[in-house]
Design goal:
It is built from 19 helices and 24 strands. Helix content is 35%, strand content 19%. By secondary structure, it is of the alpha/beta class.
Length: 707
């Protein structure tokens, strides 16, 4: 039998009634709360007029409000005599609970930050919030916080972004971002800079019984004195500047008596480099000194370094793809970070945000970068350097740099919302086209758990997210929209559309793609417009001149036009049948040539020491000339073969004469041929390749032709 507990029921009713009243009061309070934009005036006030920092930043906010509203009556430094007003109280609080806070309480908005850098950022968050249409902020990225109620801490102390949209030193403080060209005393493998002229012999590493001009001896007193003079003369002793102290980018390790005594081995320079950094850190306790976990210094030192020493760890081995945490590369990276945390107080990560072989094809990486940032933060990483396209244009770099700057403060930034606000601010006419397209690309990458390569070709983009037909339709819609816009938006769209012609040309070059010379001419004509934009000289990190690409395309059109080949469409076979090669065999007889500057697309690449390409019986006639189109690109470990012989059965028919090539040549296409006098139509013809004796050597061929 159910018995009612009257006492318990009464208490429950009371709690419910109290909660209802409280909820209604809160709702009324929220309904009556005024937004920042609903006031006639802003009364800007220092929290304490006796404190110089409070006064300084109250004046700063007042002056910028005055300038951006264009009216001396909107922002005031004294209490208004009439009209409604919002009092804005500015306060620097080094001992506050959070790095920043913005709290609207009644008619008072309190802006509080732990230091002056964060106060400047917070003021611009207020100016860019879009709360008040009287404040002209069309040049500022959208605010990432709700200016009426926000508090928090910056996720990372160093937030470097090496991209063209972060190249303005006046904008960096606004977005609270950093840039290696402005805030490091030494960066990368640039230790040579401490010497005004030639590096003295005593500072050079001792390798294989002689001085190596490409590496340093980190036990050299002369090297230490040179670094000491460089730091003192240029930055003093109290500035808190960061310095990267790294060996040159090679595997050489000094084996002098002092370095060997420190613990150096043939492949490990950590002992001498860490001792060098210890000396610098102790000599300059107010500066920060970083080594790198890379090549000869990958292993941490045995003993902890001073508190002002740190390490930069590359994330190159951490694939840029969704849901990477928990997989082996992430486990290895986590292990490395944990080992370094035992000996240094600061760990910075060198991460990547571009396909360095193609800056112009969109690279929908924001969702993956957000995941990575949360992961890095969970490991205790204190700083990030994002390697982008430097000073070269990259498609959607403006949006991605703005969003990344926010995510380096808060990795949980609502990306879709921020993307929408950014595009609507800077592409007001085209946002209806750009927004669904960009978000769909990000979604596809997430859905497929796709790999975004750091060095990849157009096929990688198609595999990850790019649908060629939909992409073409997107470009056409965007082009139509651009023609109806003007001003800065028109210029931004023209720049983007010029870059996207590169992607359309690359899609035409894909094996089994829809090569069309008429379309190629249209896209090339548009890409020639790159000269109108100062940042569009290069489309990739190395050897990426757009002008050279256009010239190669003009040659390519002629090659494809003249490609009358009886072998076209004939499937060849390869021994050994390597998986990596099998899929690309059709490019050898598709009638389409490749660009020498791009090994990703249109080339059959084989790395076996010996391999054989086999032409089916009856496809080559007596007296035919067999021609190979080969790639020579030693920087990519692609060489001409040591030999190529033509066989049928057990009989050698001919050999190809291979031309000499210049050692300094970056890449070139070489055509070689031989004549076959008598061919048995009943058995296959074999092309037997032998690689040159070079490490990691490969052979690349884009077309085998018979005439």
């Amino acid at each position: 039998m159910y018995i009612c507990n009257c006492s318990y029921t009464s208490k429950l009713k009371a709690v419910f009634f109290f909660g209802l009243i409280l909820s209604l009061c809160c709702a009324c309070s929220r309904a009556g709360a005024r937004r920042v934009s609903s006031y006639d005036h802003y009364w800007v006030k220092a929290a304490d007029e006796r404190v110089e920092a409070d006064r300084k930043w109250a004046d700063y906010l007042f002056n910028h409000l005055d300038r951006r509203t264009g009216s001396r009556s909107v922002a005031l430094r004294q209490k208004p005599a009439q009209g409604t007003f919002l009092q804005i109280v500015v306060h620097i609080d080094a001992k506050g609970k959070h790095d920043y806070s913005a709290v609207l309480d009644g008619d008072v908005l309190r802006l509080t930050a732990c230091d002056e850098d964060k106060m400047l950022w917070l003021i611009y968050q207020f100016l860019a919030s879009g709360e008040d249409p009287r404040i002209e902020a069309s040049d500022l990225p959208p605010a990432m916080i709700d200016i009426a109620h926000a508090e928090g801490d910056f996720a990372f102390e160093y937030r470097g972004i090496y991209s063209p949209s972060n190249a303005d030193p006046e904008l960096m403080p606004v977005t609270a971002s950093h840039h290696v060209d402005y805030d490091w005393g030494l960066w990368g493998h640039n230790l040579r800079r401490v010497f005004p002229g030639e590096v003295p012999e005593e500072a050079l590493a001792w390798v294989d019984g002689q001085r190596d001009e490409n590496q340093f001896c980190f036990s050299s007193e002369l090297l230490f004195k040179a670094v000491e003079a460089y730091v003192t003369d240029n930055y003093g002793e109290t500035g808190g500047v960061r310095f990267a102290i790294m060996p040159n980018d090679n595997g050489a390790v000094c084996a002098c008596k002092a370095c060997t005594a420190a613990g150096n081995t043939r492949k490990k320079a950590t002992p001498s480099v860490s001792r060098f950094i210890r000396r610098l850190a102790e000599r300059y306790p107010h500066h920060l000194f970083f080594t790198s976990s890379y090549r000869t210094t990958e292993v941490p030192p045995a003993e902890p370094l001073p508190q002002n020493a740190g390490v930069i760890i590359s994330a190159m081995d951490l694939p840029l793809r969704p849901d990477f945490a928990g997989k082996r590369p992430a486990e290895n990276f986590s292990r490395k970070v944990k080992e370094w945390r035992k000996v240094v107080s600061r760990i910075y990560v060198w991460d990547y945000m571009r396909n360095f072989d193609d800056y112009f094809t969109p690279y929908p990486c924001l969702g993956v970068l957000s995941e990575r940032l949360r992961y890095f933060h969970s490991l205790g990483v204190k700083g990030l350097f994002y390697n982008g396209s430097g000073y070269d244009y990259a498609s959607f770099d403006d949006l991605q740099t703005a969003a990344l700057a926010c995510m380096l403060i808060n990795p949980d930034l609502p990306l879709e919302s921020y993307t929408e606000r950014y595009l609507k601010r800077f592409y007001s006419h085209a946002s209806d086209i750009l927004l669904p397209a960009y978000l769909s690309w990000e979604h596809i990458v997430k859905e497929r758990e796709a790999l975004l390569p750091f060095y990849g070709g157009i096929a990688d983009a198609v595999s990850a997210w790019l649908d060629p037909v939909e992409f073409g339709a997107f470009c056409d819609r965007l082009d139509g929209c651009a023609k109806r816009t003007d001003g800065m938006e028109r210029r931004r769209l023209n720049e983007l559309l010029t870059a996207l012609q590169f992607t359309r040309l690359e899609l035409l070059r894909m094996p089994a793609g829809a090569y069309d010379e008429r379309k190629a001419d249209l896209y090339l004509e548009s890409l020639y417009g790159y000269t109108a934009f100062s940042g569009m000289k290069n489309y990739r990190e190395a050897f990426g001149s757009v002008q050279s690409y256009l010239e190669e395309w003009n040659i390519l059109k002629t090659e494809n036009r003249e490609s009358q080949n009886p072998l076209k469409g004939i499937r060849l076979s390869c021994q050994p049948a390597e998986d990596e090669n099998a899929a690309s065999l059709p490019v050898l007889t598709d009638g389409l040539y490749a660009l020498p500057s791009d090994y990703h697309t249109g080339w059959f690449i084989a790395s076996s020491r010996r391999f054989v390409l086999q032409v089916p019986p009856g496809k080559i006639s007596d007296g035919a000339v067999l021609e190979l189109s080969l790639l020579y690109a030693p920087a990519w470990h692609i060489f001409l073969p040591a030999s190529v012989e033509v066989w049928q059965g057990e009989g050698k028919m001919a050999s190809f004469g291979l031309p000499p090539v210049g050692e300094k040549e970056v890449f070139s296409k070489q055509r070689v041929s031989c004549k076959l006098e008598t061919v048995n139509p009943d058995i296959p013809v074999e092309l037997r390749f032998m690689q040159v004796a070079a490490a990691r050597a490969s052979v690349a061929c884009d077309e085998i032709k018979v005439y």
